[in-house]
Amino acid sequence: MPYNDPDPTDPNVLVGVVLPADAEAMREMAYVFAEEFVRMGYDRKFLLALFRNPLYAGAHGAYRTLGEEAILTIIDECLAAWGGIQFSILDFGLPIEGGEEIQDRKSKIQNGGRER
Predict the structure, then answer these.
(1) Residue 9 and residue 84: Cα distance in Å, rounded?
(2) How far apart are CA 19 and CA 95, in angstroms?
(3) How far apart are CA 99 and CA 30, in angstroms?
């Protein structure tokens, strides 16, 4: 077998298949896309732009299949469920809002719970 030609008997060769998908499967896929990006903090305007963008093939396919009204409904439902959640990363080495309180906690931790 030449180096670049796949061996048909190799069990590790990647094989792609096309599965039939109806409008309901597209609806579920649209929910997954919307929920994922809402949970990352994106807003309604960005999400709609994502669904309209043909470079996001899966999301755009759902947009074409379901239509803009259905996609907006899905986006609104995901925003209602997940839109109020905000994640933040706490790093004691960087100044952030309320940094004085965090520095006080840090010093208490470093001193074994005692005041400075």
Answers:
(1) 51
(2) 50
(3) 40
Dihedrals phi, psi of 24, to nearest 5 degrees: -65, -40
Q: What is the pTM of this model?
A: 0.60
Q: Which phi and psi angles does 58 have, rounded to 5°?
A: -65, -50
- Reported residue count of the chain is 116
Sequence-separated (6 or more) residues with CB below 8 Å from residue 75: 34, 38, 44, 47, 48, 51
CA angle 98, 104, 110 (to 5 degrees): 135
Q: What is the pLDDT of residues 35-52, one digit of tens each?
A: 999 998 889 999 999 999
